[in-house]
Design brief:
By secondary structure, this protein is mainly α. It has helices at 2-51, 59-69, 78-93. It has 2 domains: 1-52; 55-94. Helix 2 runs antiparallel to helix 3.
Length: 94
């Protein structure tokens, strides 16, 4: 009976040590996880900053150009239609 108790205590101690080791590993992985998230956020900010294009033309100016070039003011000319369509495309992309 005493041998079985000693054996159970030994097994229990091994299980406890394994559990504690797993907790330490989990904490290490969690730290690494958050470090990687921080690095990801830094990289994402850099990429977003590089992808920002300065707006060379504002919407108000594009609207004025659309009014100025509109085909109704130029006898429905093909060139006025082309320019107006392009300006509308530009306006929609702003």
């Amino acid at each position: 009976m005493i041998m079985i108790d000693i054996l159970l205590v030994a097994v229990l101690m091994v299980v406890i040590v394994k559990y504690l080791n797993l907790q330490v590993q989990h904490q290490d992985l969690e730290i690494k996880h958050w470090e990687l998230i921080d690095k990801w956020n830094i990289l994402a900010k850099r990429v977003n900053a590089q992808n920002k294009k300065p707006q060379l033309i504002d919407q108000k100016l594009v609207k004025q150009l659309i009014v100025f070039c509109h085909p109704d003011k130029h006898d429905n000319s093909a060139r006025a239609k082309e320019l107006t369509q392009e300006l509308l495309r530009i306006r929609d992309s702003l």
